[in-house]
Amino acid sequence: MIKNIKKSLSGNIVNILGWQTNRKIVVIESDDWGSIRMASKESYNILLKSGYPVDLCPFNRYDALESNEDLEMLFEVLSSVKDKNGSPAIMTADMVVANPDFEKIQESDFQEYYYEPFTETLVHYPGHDRVMDLYKEGIEHKIFYPQFHGREHLNVNRWMNALRRGDKDAHAAFMHKMFSVHNLPKPDNLNEYMDSLGYDSLSEKEHLAQIITEGLSLFGKIWGFNSKSFIASCYIWSSDIEKTLFGHGVNYIQGMLIQSEPALTDGITYKKKYHYQGQKNSYGQRYLIRNAFFEPNEFIDFDWVSDCINRISFAFRWNKPAIISTHRKNFIGFIDPSNRDRNLQLLKTLISKLLERWPEVEFMTSDQLGDLMNGN
């Protein structure tokens, strides 16, 4: 009873304020594409036998750089349905465009950081040789649309500091060309080095503008178009970064109800900022707030389909678009094929039930929704 009341309150609160529409708009935002995570099944087994609890973290247990087969099977599900306009389901693929260049970092004796475009990272992985061709097909058929998630999904400064001081866990991951082994949290590593826009000093904060600028430039070179939206890794960013994003054509900021802003106090702490759907900042950028969730490998016994449909009903009741938050890890079978197979079936069930209940649904990308909010 109490749990249902809390769900109802949260479902209503996130949708009360902000931009409204009578249209039944659904946006599927999926994070982490292009980023490395678990290197291979062999690496997973070695780390597990070495005492690292990689099996307890869904990202380490299932997530990996997307493969040919992963994309083929996902695209099949997305293209299996059509909305009121005859358009298939489309996924906004929030992507990082680079990963650490492990060889160069090691050659520098861990003194210098180097990165490589994720297109080069693909070359190191078996079964990934057609990923870029598949991406282009996904864009052409309007089922997959990249947007900017960062240069890397990595807090470069904290990770490099750990490597330089000989941190055992950081080096254990590095040996497998990874940066996370899901060991016990440390004071300087609460997010497994994944919070790319976290910082511990003003100088580090200023350097983030360069990282974002380089990342957006590389995004444009890889995809042939600029990203109009952005999502911060771990939902952690300073509002000052928004000026840099705006200067490079980013008009929409994806996120949750709460933004975590580094506080620069003792330890890693954050100030909370609250946003509402379509809210504008001082640069005219709009916040796009996620109000439904599909994360079936977080809690396997949970009914994610019904919960997501329920949250979408709250959004539509308040005349809001439904923005579904999900992550790449749910659709990856490179480490464990059963993870992908199970969750793709659930995704197909979700979008089929969605269209059955609301035949007037329209699928959009994040930037299309933002453009609609701006009257374009």
Summary tags:
globular, three-stranded parallel beta sheet, six-stranded parallel beta sheet, 16% strand, single chain, alpha/beta, 14 helices, 376 residues
Compact overview of the structure:
This protein is an alpha/beta fold and 376 residues long. Helices cover 39% and strands 16% of the residues.
| End-to-end gap | 44 Å
Question: Can you count the helices?
Answer: 14
* Oligomeric state, counting identical vs distinct chains: single chain
Helix residue percentage: 25-40%
What is the topological layout?
Blueprint: H1 2-16, E1 25-33, H2 41-49, H3 58-62, H4 68-78, E2 91-96, E3 98-100, H5 102-107, E4 115-117, H6 118-121, H7 131-140, E5 144-150, H8 156-164, H9 168-174, H10 202-223, E6 229-231, H11 241-247, E7 252-255, E8 258-262, E9 270-274, E10 286-289, E11 292-293, H12 304-317, E12 322-327, H13 337-357, E13 362-364, H14 366-373
Parallel strand pairs: 1-2, 1-12, 1-13, 2-5, 6-7, 7-10, 11-12
Antiparallel strand pairs: 3-4, 8-9
Describe what this molecule looks like in 3D.
- The model has no long low-confidence stretch (mean pLDDT 95).
- Helices cover 39% and strands 16% of the residues.
- The chain has helices spanning 2-16, 41-49, 58-62, 68-78, 102-107, 118-121, 131-140, 156-164, 168-174, 202-223, 241-247, 304-317, 337-357, 366-373; strands spanning 25-33, 91-96, 98-100, 115-117, 144-150, 229-231, 252-255, 258-262, 270-274, 286-289, 292-293, 322-327, 362-364.
- Strands 1, 2, 5, 11, 12 and 13 form a six-stranded parallel beta sheet that branches.
- The chain is globular and about 60 Å long.
- Helix 4 (68-78) runs parallel beside helix 7 (131-140).
- It is α/β, with parallel strands linked by helices.
